[in-house]
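**Archive record**
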Amino acid sequence: MGEAEACLTLAAAHVPPTFTDQFEHAEELARLALADAAARHYRAAIALDPQQPAAFNNLGLALAARGQTEQAEQAFGAALVLAPDIAEIHANLGDVLRRRRAWEPAVERFQGATRLKPDWPEAWNNLGVSLRPLDRLNEAAAAFERATVLRPTFAEAHYNLGNALAAAGRREDAARHFQRAVEIDPHHAESAYSLGMLATDVAAAERWYARALDARPDFAEALTARTFNRLKACDWAAAEPLAERLRDWIDRRPEAAIAPFNVVQIFDDPALQQRAARQWVTNRIMPWVRGRGPLVDSAIASRPDRLRIGYLSADFREHAVGRMIAAALAAHDRHRFHITAYSLGPDDGSTVRRTVEQGADVFCEASALGATDLAHRIAADGIHILVDLNGHTEHSRSEALALRCAPVQASYLGYPGTMGAPWIDCILTDATLTPAALQPFFDEALLPVPNGYLVDHRPAAVAVPARSALGLPEDGIVFCCFNAAYKIRPDVFAAWMRILARSPGSVLWLLGSNDGAVTSLQAAARDAGIAPDRLRFAPSVAYEAHSARIAAADLFLDTWTYSAGATAAQTLAAGVPLLAFPGRGYAARMSAAVLGALGIPELIAGDAGQYEERAVALAADAERLADLRARLRSSVAVSPLFDANAGARRLEAAYEAAWRQRSAAAAGT
């Protein structure tokens, strides 16, 4: 017991048993932040006069300070019964409801506070904060805007308004409010981080992320984003210590909740990826789910005549996932399967979007639905197997799956790793992508898709642009890699430079994804003794134009910390051999899985040295390379990998297996 509390306790022994004296004594204890003792005396005051709303309200504040939110909610509720016209009581009750993630009741209370006290900026801000998890973006933005009008220097409200506007796709308006927040408070780390996320070039993003971390050194999101940003710029010297710090946070600070997809992108370490995913689920999703039971019973009796399959994705658009799933979705056997597509992303008017809309039995535009409403919709639709094509990526609705809205819930295609979540039953994969040795690092059952996990479309014949038109030499070997710049790591690049050094007249054709990466890679080539002009950079073009120009290359050199996935399928479909060296995890083994499905195992190297030797040997043997290209074209022409109907059958076989496994588990066999 502290000296101040001891003195007040001694004084309390002589306090007459009146409401006023007990209440004033409790107030003094509360001012000294002695919440436990204050709560005892507020209760004593209430026992003497239970008709005083201030005593119930202040008891609620003391209990909330101790983290006793349920008891605090009861106290504020009692105060509200006695004094329903006091805005502060509404707001205090809203605060504890918000802390308990009871968003809808919290909204009602903050609405009451703003109705009674319309010039209270904090109440408007808290109303907006409570509306956001319900995905009521327009209402949230209006509440935040009202707070900024009432108090133009309210940095937190400007930040919150920026977030709501960014979520609604209004990036420029969002940036303006984030900028205003850092003008008001130069140390507002969250706004600096958000400006980095909105930055259009890696240099500007780096400045904002650095500022965010200077302001708040324990800011996990900013550290993750800064690490990834340095990798995007191929600034490996700066990225390495940041990555090690990030790894240490995952190992030693499980409460930090590092975004799992960034961990997959940065580290080829299945155990680390699993830890990060589990921590994210524990810290970011489970608190939202806690106390809310499953919406459906996962017990299964027998197979219905038609299995109802639900596909959940933000990428039913011009996107790698959308392109790969659209045709197969439309090709499902409608006598045995009923297909519902739940779209969480924007309508970009693309052919992919129209194919999904027309190919599904039911197309549900779900982007405006909150996680709870989405989960109830899926459960009401009677979906038997829900296929999550997002995982821990942008616009995901993991909370909906956490409510168990379908008897079987599967992860597929969009997320290259474990979800680390107890509500995902299985992941659709294949033996090359996820060999049995990886099962301990997946919380889902590994469910193989026969003859390859990817489904892509067979390309139409197109005219290949002349090399000169693409800025490439007409003679000599053109190596290429069209992976994103963050996948290029020092060991990969060093191998590429040795390959160029041993292959006279060759060039390496890369994506010119950002100026920072181009500058860094040219400097790294120069340091390796390779003339920078032997690196050629391709500008961004539409998917079809890129598919046509790929065929101008001779050999694709894949990365191995994070390999090509959809890019591998696109490259091989264009008739260009791809040399892979599979790494440890799912994301590092995607191109090898595609090569295995095509039946070209000699393009899968066993180690980095073999990768380098095979690249040099192929570059020096034009006849062998031509033969390989011919074999590849023949394989693509007949492979089920590029046949949407065959792809649909493969997926259906996996769904049947998933249903049988769940049925057996439900029967206890």
The longest helix spans residues 644-667.
